[in-house]
Fold this sequence. Notes:
alpha/beta, L,D-transpeptidase catalytic domain-like, 6 helices, 21% strand, 233 residues, eight-stranded mixed β-sheet
Amino acid sequence: MRMHRIGFVVLGLVLLSHPAMALEEEVAAIHRRADFGSERVSLDARDIADWVVASADNRGLPFVIVDKTDARVFVFDAGGRIQGATPALLGLARGDDTVPGIGDREFSDMPPETRTTPAGRFVAALGMNTRGEDVVWVDYEAAVDIHRVVTNKPEDRRLERLATLTPLDNRISYGCINVPARFYEKVVSPAFTGTDGIVYVLPETRAARDVFGFYDVPERSGRNYADRTEAPK
């Protein structure tokens, strides 16, 4: 009987500890953040990435943050650890929406004002474009993907645009997200091989909170966070 009583006491203690353990796990989850390493990053990009990790919005999949204002792409593994970052070329027109039916148009039927890179959360996957090249489809209906930088029109100077320090000349595409070929092959393609992923394209005409509905992750501590986010662009 004495052993039974001891067993009941131990069982009671275990049961009582479970809610506390669950609460601790929940608090720990809320405080999880993305690991950008030493990459330069805007406050909006960091806020979205932190929210993705803390809320598990990526559903255990690798994810990509596309910062249109800074013209930069960040690729993360499923746990929110940076795999690489790069400048990118984006849609010529400023805007966060696509023109209905734009994915079915020929390039010649896409005036400059229609060439936007849409903002939002997209389930993305590797696939092939009409030229038989592998790409990561972001918005298939709108024909928007992440692919190697296109260099078949020298007058576009796409390689030169990627190499400049300013994002002001990175708006040139029809809406797709152009990244350096080596970055695509070494970072983007491996991240999506054998799995889907989530691509978060930050808006430029609306607030990120309105697009994604994210909440604030508790502020980071330490000087490094402020130093990195306030670095000159």
